[in-house]
Each structure stands twice: as C-alpha cells, then as structure tokens.
Amino acid sequence: MNSRPVLKIENLRTFFYSKGKRAFVRSVDGVNLRIGKGETLGIVGESGSGKSVTALSIMGLVPGEPGVIIGKIGLKTDNIQKNLLQDLRDYVKINMSTGRIMEVYKDNVGWQKNVDRVMQGIRGTEIAMIFQNPKLALNPFIPIGKQITESIRINTPIKKRSQARERAMYWLAKVKMDSPRLRYYNNPYGLSGGMCQRAMIAMALSSDPSLLIADEPTTGLDATIQSKIVDLLADLKSSVGVTTMLISHDINVIKALSDNVAVMYGGTLLEHGPVGIILSAEHQAKHPYTAALLESIPREKHIREKGYLQAIKGDVLDTINIPLGCRFYSRCDKVTEKIQEKCDNHEPDLREISSGHSLRCWLYYE
Ligand SMILES: Nc1ncnc2c1ncn2[C@@H]1O[C@H](COP(=O)(O)OP(=O)(O)OP(=O)(O)O)[C@@H](O)[C@H]1O
Ligand code: SF4
Ligand SMILES: [Mg+2]
User: Is residue 266 in contact with ligand 1, taking CB distance under 6 Å?
Assistant: First the structure.
C-alpha cells in the first residue's frame, strides 16, 4: 500500500471483565492494521470475532466499567495527528503475570472524561460511523433533513441554517433519495429501513469525514434493498472516495466494495491483504479459515453439487480461553502431521507471504 495511513492500529487489545466467569473476554486481542487514504478496508469474520468491538474501540465507545483498551490507535488526517489511546494509560493499571492479565484497576470517571476530551472534534467530524440499524441511530420523530442540517452545523464550518439546509438537500440527492426536497421533511418513523440507511449515509458523509466506519451497513435490510445500498456505496466510493473501514460478515459485500481485506477470528487477524488475492476462489494460497469462509458462502453451485450448504464446522472461539497454539486449530481441516505439534502449541505470527499479503498459519512458514 503506497498511500499514507489515515488509521494505523497497533497491537490493539480490548477486554471485558466477565464477573460471572471471573475472567477477561478478549474481544480484540492484538490487532494491527492500517487504512491508506482513499482506501476501503473490509473486515470480515464470523459473529463474535471482534469486528464491532474494534470499531467501537476506535470511536471511543467501548462501554465504561469493564472495558479495557490497550495499544495504539493512530489517526492522521489533514487536521489531526494523534494516538487516540495516548492518555488513557494514566487511568488504568494492569497487573500481568507471564503474559496474562491478573488484575485491572481503572478510574472509570477519569477514563470516560479523557475519552470524551480526546474524541471531541473527532467523533462525527473526523470519523463518522454508520450502523446496522439506522432507525436506532436517528431520532424517529425529527425530520431526516433537519437532523442532517443540525449535524452539518455541529460538525462542519457551515453554521448558517439556510446554507446547512442546502447542503443537507445536496447529500439527500447524492445518496439517491427519491424526491430529496420532499423527503427532507419526513420523519424516520415513517420511512423504510433502506431510506433510513440512505439518510444515515448522507448524515455521515455530510461532515466530510476523514474516515468512515460502516458496521454491517446492509445487514437487516431485505435482499433487494441490500443490493441497492451496496450499489450506492460503490457509487459513493468512486465519487466521494472517503477512506472507509467496512465491517460485514457478508463476503459478497466486502468483495464488492473493498480494496483490502482483513479476516478476523477470535479477536485477532488471521489474514490481511488485497481483496483480489484473499477473496478470490482461484487464488490457492490462503488461510484455512478464509478458505472455509469462502466455502460457506451460500452459492447455488455448492448446494447443487454437495446437496447441502456448508458451514464451518465447530464453534467460534471462546475468547476467555485462548489456546496456546493456533486459534483456529480445533476447527481446521488442513493440519498436517508435520506441523501438528506447532499448530497445537504455538500461535503463528502474522507474516507476509507475498507483497502486501500476510497470514497466520504454519502451513506457509516452512
Ligand atoms: N460489552 C461487552 N461486554 C462483554 N463482552 C462483550 C461486550 N461487547 C462484545 N463482547 C464480546 O466480544 C466478542 C466480540 O464481539 P463483537 O460484537 O465485536 O463481534 P462481531 O465480530 O462484531 O460479531 P457480529 O458479526 O455478530 O456483529 C463477543 O464474544 C462478544 O460477546
Ligand atoms: S496454523 Fe495449523 S491449525 Fe492454524 S490454520 Fe494453519 S494449519 Fe490450521
Ligand atoms: Mg458486529
């Protein structure tokens, strides 16, 4: 990747304390990634792999009391260059023994105050986010146009209401809302999920963010609407070109919109690189987990040839009990006799096996 990174995450760990189990859920456990200017990075992985918690960690929205975040989240835009986690170390003390977290002392009030201070002028301005359920993010009883207008006045230099209103109209048209001038006055309450998602996208982009985080933007919409939203996002990618982190468990959505892709499992990245290499069925050198994910895409061919829909066997990793070896070991069908001992006992690191393509798997390290 040539362009300078807008976002550079180093060794991010986000843990939650489970009182019931008296142990830490390691939702994000050592993630490194970067997104270059204008790039769309797709993050894909099964449910519970840590995709949303990665996004919430960037936004400073990890729920207070038990949430502990360590590592670096470097944001570099035209206006800002900072590690979003820099000052948080002062509010948390972690006692570790042989790499395991034994105890955490956290000043929750100080932590939250500091997060809010750091994220001021960033959340909604430099980094905008769209979610799976736009109806929850919008106020149901305030016209969408009015909500976008107010967001523009808060997050951009446009303060005059009439100018902000014109800008909101522009964005409603840009996201291909039918009759934008009429829709401006509609409450989300009476609009379809697809229209609300268009309004959310308009609101997110209207602040001209340096980074857009889209967490499952098409999930929950019906199939036809889903494909229309994917078309819209593809269109905006070429016309607006905002740097984007796109999270989805739907490989087809990731394939259609991403330049690079990160495959997450059990809180960490198992593979990272250009979408054309990682998600192409023809490219053979890939992580066994990615191969299994690709196999599990509901394709007519699979159902026709095998008579069933293949899901990845076994259960998603419980990140309270991370194994010593490869996180995918208990579900992997590619382990050979030669590497079995390593797969079982030593976690592979993320290594580059070809230009820009990295993965964690002993199969490729011989
Ligand atoms: N506030 C929390 N407290 C405790 N555990 C949490 C919390 N939020 C998330 N987790 C756990 O962290 C793990 C990762 O969750 P996350 O929501 O990031 O998964 P995901 O990859 O986004 O999955 P999905 O595709 O279902 O959205 C899960 O095991 C989840 O149960
Ligand atoms: S390291 Fe071993 S267990 Fe893990 S994915 Fe590779 S072959 Fe499978
Ligand atoms: Mg999620």
Answer: no
